Amino acid sequence: MIVNERAINALVIAGLVGLPLWALVMDEPFTITLVTRAVILALAAAGLNIILGFGGMVSFGHAVFFGIGGYTMGILAYHAQTYTALDLGAFTTGGTKSMPLIWLAAMGLSAIVALFIGLLSLRTSGVYFIMITLAFGQMFYYFAISWAQYGGEDGLSIYVRNDFPGLNTLQPIQFFAICFALLCIVLFVKARLTASPFGLALNAARQSGARVETAGLSPLRLKLLAFVISGAITGLAGALFADLNRFVSPSMFSWQLSGELIVLIIIGGVGRLMGPVIGACVYVALEHVLGGITEFWHVYLGLILLSIVLFARGGLIGLLTGKEGAHV
Amino acid sequence: MPSLLIIEQILNGLQFGVMLFLMAAGLTLIFGVMGLINLAHGSLYMVGAFAAAAVAGATGSFFLGLVAALVAAAFAGAIVEIVVIRRLYKAAHLDQVLATFALILIFSEGTRWVFGSFPLFLDIPDAISGPVTLPGGIEYPLYRLVLIGIGLAVAVGLWALIERTRIGIQIRAGENDREMIAALGIDISKLYTLVFALGAALAGLAGALVGAIQSVQVGMGEPVLILAFVVIVIGGIGSIRGAFVGALLVGLTDTLGGVFLPELFKLFMEAGAAQRSGSAIASMGIYILMGLVLVWRPTGLFGARA
Amino acid sequence: MSEPLLETRTLVKSFGALKATDNVSIDLRPGEIHAVIGPNGAGKSTLIEQICGGLVPDAGQVFLEGRDVSAWRTQARARAGLARTFQISALCMEDSVLENALLGAIGAMGASWRFWSGALTRPELRERAEAALERVGLEDEHDTQCASLSHGERRQLEVGMALTLAPRVLVMDEPMAGIGAGGSKKLTELLDSLRETAPILLVEHDMDAVFALADRISVLVYGKVIATGSAQEIRTSRAVREAYLGQEA
Questions:
Q1: Where are the domains of chain A?
Q2: Shortest Cα distance, chain A CAs vs residue C78, angstroms
Q3: Integer Rg of chain B from CA
Q4: Residues B30, B243: Cα–Cα separation, whole Å
Q5: What is the spatial distance between Cα A44 and Cα A65, in angstroms, rounded to a whole number?
Q6: Helix, strand, coil share (%) of chain A residues, nearest 5
Q7: CATH number for the domain that contains residue C32
Q8: CB contact under 8 A, A215 and C78
Q9: Which residue of A146, A263, B131, B233 lies most exposed, with the fewest beta carbons within 10 A?
């Protein structure tokens, strides 16, 4: 079966818009929440795909940024809702419930942490890189668990969803609209980035580091910048995810989550713009459908994943369009 | 700080370290010989622990439990190698990561399916439970000493296997030159299955031994697996000696940091805050150690120079 | 005599007991092709890596247009006009010919920190890449994926990518390796036409090509330069004969 990739992309976007609208009419808020969840996971995976698909860096620790985004939201909102001061050394703030501010903080913090993790882990490559990013993820996980001030192992609940100027974020469809708009913006930016000179150089760095150096460019700097951008986007997704659940916990830092983000990309197809989106939709649908049938749905997820790796290298898009994705 | 406590904590660190070594040795061997990164190594640890708990529970014999752990983990390892892993040797790291991640899902949920979500318990036999008095008057659990002994014995045994036997020669040849070993007429796929099963058996043994002092439950393998990754990143991937040194370093850093950092912080902070920040930093201690080693030597202490 | 564009002074590099480069001083002057020949294991690749920045010499310096670049990284030397081609083609196989050529243009024009405009649509990058491809005869292969190029065409693209850097100096590591007689003739003509664009330091095994192209030849044996001179001088050199044919010659 050979289908045009553009047609699939258009169909997915149409479905992502149509399903929540249908759910709105049918008054099924849970479906809207489900689609919002898929959109946010797609955003997180889209961030990861910048380095995994285009840069060839298999980060098994991207939950770090998801968690940082989540905790940024949690901590800022916690101080705002308890009217306590947050002492940041240089200055003190009362926290905030404003989404745009929270997003900025989440992306900024994720970018800074990504810079440090990237500087250390990009000194290595291949298996070392995988293991080191995994270990950094675990470091943040244990730190969050021992961080008693913000709930430790139990996490942190936020009573009311944060505000966005002019919208009522408590309405599922309005919150969905915010998340969907952000996803579209990120995908558009990513498409431009991929086609830009930077994107071309990054793609070349994945295939041949020596060649890139010989062209007068530093593969390390290209990869580091991609890592930082990638971390910031996944951080943004983390802040949204925390807002969706009105809850953050150390599990946002867990290695399982890092693994699942990679899985989303693989299901959709590595190095494709819409790969993470399709992957996230399929993943959430599987979780919902299989999870409804059996408590042990991860067994089936594992079997599906195994078959994709062994038999369908290009992911679902690759299967449908008959083209393999980028080689990592 | 009483010196007795220090010695006790050093022994705890050693015990933790040698158990990490059992995990890390298999991982590093599998990577060194086959070039495979195996995330499912933690599942084999879990298989060993569950097999030991089930058999020891049914027969009442801890020793039979240990045998069952070795056999079950080695068997599971061999099956997994033949069915899945051997298709991945030439694959990209990403594929290896994904396929072995899928194996974790299957193993974990499969075990939950069979044994349920409640933890099992594995009792230490009376003969090696209870405290002993060490020279200097330190009371220390005998079982933990036994663990240190077993860990060191396995380390020596592995060294002898690799340095002194025909199999060891083949393994070393496999690490250096994959084409050569095939050219020598050695059945490479059999060797790979054997190495994988050996690594699995070590992981299973560790799972059973540690299962007796913690609880046996689904998901017990992955935290240990990630620590074992830290160990081999520090020691240098593919190096057994590096795995040993790295494991002891990690075991001691983690144990001693958790006890002494809060104490250290109390010297210049108020007690509650010192406890909190001390244990928070201690929880990151081994990762900081890893970071420092990487800055100093990107391929680990005993890794091949890039 | 004009100033050399590229010069090594008493380069030394050892691997354990093996002296791979032993006091090598060679230079490259404007408008010439200077070939470096020598038996396998003579240290030719080690020498190239030290010139291009892939290996750090134990002692000695590398000068590019009179500047000491010994401590510079590969990418800095490339930006300063030192372009190289690889013995085993290091192209981005998944990308098209034009995209590969664009990579060089991006590096040369410092465009890698442009994130918004399309790489294929920026006229100044595209003109430079297209000009280089035309120079090496690949103007009809813009959209061909590298992986489906013939061996000879890959060599041409290697040279084309070096040209996108607007090089002051070209260093080529066995450009003729592995291509047939027809391709070799075509590439020889191409290199011949390049010497006025930038002088070439040519490491090559193909003696026909070397004697057809080189203005000067240096012979490297066991890490040492045993002779430097014109093709005629090298042909008749006693030291070279001994090195290649053994004592009895």
A1: 34-255
A2: 5
A3: 20
A4: 12
A5: 9
A6: 75, 5, 20
A7: 3.40.50.300
A8: yes
A9: B131
User: What domain range is C220 assigned to?
Assistant: 1-81+167-249
Alpha carbon distance A274, A256 (integer Å): 23
* Residue C132 touches partner A, C-beta closer than 8 Å: no
B2 falls within a domain = no
* Segment A243-252 mean pLDDT: 94
Question: Is A8 an interface residue toward B (CB < 8 Å)?
Answer: no
Q: What is the least distance, in Å, from the CA of B302 to any CA of chain A? A: 14
Give the list of residues 6+ apart from residue A23 with CB closer than 8 angstroms, or none.
A29, A31, A32, A35
ipTM for the predicted complex: 0.86
Question: How far apart, in whole angstroms, are the C-alpha atoms of residue A177 and residue A181?
Answer: 6
Residues from chain B that touch A142, judged by Cβ atoms under 8 A, are: 283-284
Please state the pTM of the whole predicted model: 0.89
pLDDT per residue as tens digits for the range C151-160 = 888 888 999 9
Instruction: Count CB neighbours of A178 within 10 A.
Output: 18
A215 lies within 8 A of chain C by CB? yes
Q: Which residue has the tokens 């450009």?
A: C175
pLDDT tens-digit readout, A259-285: 999 999 988 877 788 889 999 999 999
Among B92, B230, B294, the residue with its CB nearest the CB of A124 is B294
Who among B37, B98, B299 is closest to A263 (CB)? Answer: B98
Set of chain B residues whose Cβ sits within 8 Å of the Cβ of A124: 294, 298-299
For position B269, which CATH number holds? 1.10.3470
Specify if C86 maps to a domain.
no
Residue-wise pLDDT tens digits, B236-293:
888 888 999 999 999 999 999 888 888 888 888 888 778 877 877 888 888 889 888 8
Domain count, chain B: 1
